[in-house]
Amino acid sequence: MKLRILLADDHEIVRRGLRSLLEKREGWESAEKPAMAARPSRRHSS
Amino acid sequence: MTIRILLVDDHPIVRQGLKTLLEGRTGWEVIGEASDGAEAVEKAKELNPDVMVLDVTMPRMNGLEACRVLRRQAPQLEILFVTQHDSPQMMREAIDAGARGYVVKSNAARDLLAAVEAVSQHRVFTALNVREATGLN
């Protein structure tokens, strides 16, 4: 099964570890979006 | 140059990330892994590595305690801390415990290879922010 995975973590060393683990599975591929970790989360008020 | 490295961190995913980075260098070999300080002390005795990459906060025995034990047990072993702690106090404590280098985990991808190379040659490695914080050269 083909699966495309987006990795977001502020530590590059953790992204490397996750990527190396995930890409051992055939058909799984990962991409990184490190900037997401630095972006403040938005809270919605009700 | 051949460097035999022992990785010590309680998070397997961090060890995996460190390993992929280190094994990109020709001649560098990760000869073993440990998930706490006590296991690190045992594995160092068994495997006799050149360099240990050591986390600080771990169960059973933390990295600082392990470092102090290893300084007595294996004086030829060079120890490099790779940790999330970026306080000047922790950096100073690590160097006082006998480590040759200190890298903050968030900078590991940038600093790790230079740090391992330096400590393997018995030179102190502290990234710029560490030098500023502790006054070490």
Task: Itemize the secondary structure elements and their pairings.
The complex is a heterodimer of chains A (46) and B (137).
Chain A: E1 3-7, H1 12-22, E2 28-32, H2 35-38
Parallel strand pairs in A: 1-2
Chain B: E1 3-8, H1 12-22, E2 28-34, H2 37-47, E3 51-54, H3 63-73, E4 78-83, H4 88-97, E5 101-104, H5 108-120, E6 125-126, H6 128-134
Parallel strand pairs in B: 1-2, 1-3, 3-4, 4-5, 5-6
- The strand line-up of the biggest sheet of chain A is 1-2
User: By CATH's scheme, which homologous superfamily of the domain at 19-74 in chain B applies?
Assistant: Response regulator
Proportion in β-strands of chain B? 15-25%
Q: Whole-Å distance between the termini of chain A? A: 40 Å
- Rg calculated over all Cα atoms of chain A: 13 Å
Overall spatial form of chain B:
globular
**Percent of residues in β-strands of chain A:** 15-25%
Low-confidence stretches of chain A: 40-46
What's the overall average pLDDT of chain A, rounded?
Answer: 78
Q: What order do the helices and strands of chain A follow? A: EHEH
Mean of residue pLDDT values of chain B: 93
Beta-strand segment tally of chain A: 2
Widest sheet: strand ordering of chain B: 2-1-3-4-5-6
Oligomer status: heterodimer
Main pleated-sheet profile of chain B: 6 strands, parallel
Search tags:
heterodimer; A: 46 residues; two-stranded parallel sheet; disordered C terminus; B: alpha/beta; six-stranded parallel β-sheet; 21% strand; globular
Structural overview:
The complex is a heterodimer of chains A (about 45) and B (about 140). Chain A is an alpha+beta fold and about 45 residues long. Chain A has helices spanning about 10-20, 35-40; strands at about 5, 30. Chain A is built from two helices and two strands. Chain A has a two-stranded parallel sheet. In chain A, helix 1 (about 10-20) links the parallel strand 1 and strand 2. Chain A starts with a strand and ends in an 8-residue tail after the last helix. Chain B is of the alpha/beta class and about 140 residues long. Among the domains of chain B are: about 20-75, Response regulator (Rossmann fold), CATH 3.40.50.2300; about 105-135, no CATH class. Chain B is about 45% helix and about 20% strand. In chain B, strands 2-1-3-4-5-6 form a six-stranded parallel sheet, sandwiched between helices. In chain B, helix 3 links the parallel strand 3 (about 50-55) and strand 4 (about 80-85). The longest helix of chain B has 13 residues, at about 110-120. The chains are: A alpha+beta (about 45), B alpha/beta (about 140).
